[in-house]
Design goal:
4 strands; four-stranded antiparallel beta sheet; 70% helix; rod-shaped
């Protein structure tokens, strides 16, 4: 009987405050969708780092004839065969080096044409302008500075570059987008909490006569507050469900179909469905608990029992 009464009161409260309940559902859904999206974005950045940092190399660019005339580091002239052999031998002696792959000027020119063959500048670049290089695979990519310190400034070396820096700008951009999403999520969460508090306050005020009678007949504070808490929790649960749908639809259209980033950016290792599904229980739990706790705190102030 008590459970039936509580359920009936929940239905009454939702009908009386239908507009505000709808606003709560929408605001909770948007804030939790942004929250889930931020978690997935962070996991995507982590996945890409693990994938790409394991594949990037340290590149040691060697001086050529053109560098000898223009670059101060190559003032002693183009790299000699003896210098190349010595640099490669010294690299192979280092414990942190997994492999060393020489790249000739002709190979560098071929790769350049493959990447930039359609650009205007590619038509005036010749093989003799390309630099020879040594592609160094490290056992631990974080040890790049050891190689840079050992070989930067040596005769025949024009520069030592860590290819991770090329990717770092992309990761910084994605992290910035993640922070922006968390900021918007925080704003939406504050709006959702304010709506929940106002909805509970209006509902408690509209039913002050019923709660007064219940108090007179000896009903406990928890029993009187339960319908209001359940109303907020139900609205939050619906909002969490909508947020889950938004996350699933977003993953489907952004990566698999619609925009289809997985087809257009095949070199990117996108997170799978398992990562999205793993976040849904957390989104549902927050959607359920957050409004219930907010309603409980609000009732202590607005519902004097």
């Amino acid at each position: 009987m008590r459970a039936q009464f509580v359920l009936s009161e929940i239905g009454v409260g939702l009908r009386r405050n239908l507009t505000m309940t709808f606003a709560v559902i929408v605001s909770v859904a948007l804030s939790l969708a942004l929250f889930g999206g931020a978690l997935l974005m962070r996991e995507q950045v982590s996945t890409m780092k693990d994938y790409w940092y394991d594949k990037v190399n340290v590149s040691i660019f060697l001086c050529n004839k053109a560098d000898a005339a223009t670059a101060a580091k190559c003032a002693k002239g183009a790299v000699t065969n003896q210098q190349k052999e010595q640099i490669e031998a010294d690299l192979k002696k280092m414990d942190i080096v997994e492999s060393v792959t020489p790249e000739t000027a002709d190979e560098a020119f071929k790769h350049y044409k493959e990447q930039y063959g359609d650009t205007a500048i590619a038509s005036v670049v010749t093989p003799d302008q390309m630099q020879e290089s040594l592609r160094v695979k490290l056992k631990d990519p974080e040890k790049y500075k050891v190689v840079a310190t050992a070989f930067a400034g040596r005769d025949g070396v024009e520069s030592v570059q860590d290819q991770r820096n090329i990717l770092q700008n992309l990761f910084d951009l994605m992290n910035g987008m993640n922070i922006a999403a968390l900021g918007v999520m925080g704003l939406m969460l504050i709006i959702a909490l304010m709506l929940i508090v106002n909805t509970v306050r209006v509902s408690a005020f509209s039913r002050r006569r019923e709660t007064g009678i219940m108090r007179l007949v000896g009903a406990s504070s928890f029993y009187i507050q339960m319908p209001f808490i359940m109303e907020a929790a139900f609205a939050g649960l619906l909002g969490g469900g909508v947020a889950c749908v938004l996350l699933l639809v977003g993953r489907y259209f952004l990566i698999d179909h619609g925009i289809a980033l997985a087809e257009k950016m095949q070199l990117v290792n996108f997170i799978g469905w398992d990562a999205v599904l793993a976040k849904l229980p957390l989104v549902i739990a927050i959607g359920l608990l957050m409004p219930a706790v907010a309603a409980f705190i609000a009732l202590r102030k607005y519902l004097k029992v």
